[in-house]
Amino acid sequence: MSRDYEQYPDDDNGNVLWQMHEDGDDLTEAHEIEYSIAFTSEEKADQCAIYLLKEEQKISLFEDEDTNEWVITIYVYMEPEYADIVDLEEWFSKIAVQFEGEYDGWGCMAYIYDDEDFDPEEELNSQ
């Protein structure tokens, strides 16, 4: 199958989505996508976390022991569509700047099933 550059533009986000598609991930299904913002200041990370909670975002906050940065992860349950990802990246980038942090990208778990008849609920219930 040839790549549809309108659906999967030739940039980092388009490349990741295209690779997910090529790997067999069903991009019409909602995924929990994780967006990250990094801070050098715990105080600024706390302020941003409170702001995001008031915006009704699901988040986690932790200190990365390797970098001594404070990292907020924002969990958004959505279909991984290019335009929506770009819009959220822009919003989270603005928020990061507002609180003196740095937007650090997104990622998600791939949902790939080799067997078309595989039912994860049935699998969980059978164990």
UniProtKB/TrEMBL annotation:
<dbReference type="InterPro" id="IPR036701">
    <property type="entry name" value="RraB-like_sf"/>
</dbReference>
<protein>
    <submittedName>
        <fullName>Ribonuclease E inhibitor RraB</fullName>
    </submittedName>
</protein>
<dbReference type="InterPro" id="IPR009671">
    <property type="entry name" value="RraB_dom"/>
</dbReference>
<feature type="domain" description="Regulator of ribonuclease activity B">
    <location>
        <begin position="11"/>
        <end position="108"/>
    </location>
</feature>
<dbReference type="Pfam" id="PF06877">
    <property type="entry name" value="RraB"/>
</dbReference>
